[in-house]
Amino acid sequence: MAGATASRSRNNWGDELEQVLREALRTISFGSITLIIQDGKVIQVDKSEKVRLKKPDFIDGSGI
Q1: Who is most buried in 20, 34, 43, 59, counting CB within 10 A?
Q2: What is the DSSP string of 13-43?
Q3: In whole angstroms, what separates CA 3 from the centre of its chain?
Q4: In a domain, 12, yes or no
């Protein structure tokens, strides 16, 4: 029974959403993935990725 419920839930997500989420997870190193939900359905996936600088000592901050 539990397998049938999990299978039904996965089908409700849709193949496109699964593909988008897998790609986002595969390509992100640092950051976040946000699902935007409207009327109980995912309508948008936002990916914010952080870029880490290896040598931040050149950033002075006096011009900020």
Answers
A1: 20
A2: H-HHHHHHHHHHHHH-SSEEEEEEEETTEEE
A3: 26
A4: yes
Paired residues of 50 in beta bridges? none
Q: Is 21 within the bounds of a domain?
A: yes
Whether the full predicted model's pTM is greater than 0.85, yes or no, is no
Q: Tell me: the pLDDT tens digits for 8-59?
A: 555 566 899 999 999 999 999 899 999 999 999 999 999 999 887 776 666 6
- Would residue 52 count as lying in a domain? no
For residue 34, tell me if it sits in a domain. Answer: yes
Q: Cα torsion at 6, 11, 12, 13 (round to 10°)?
A: 100
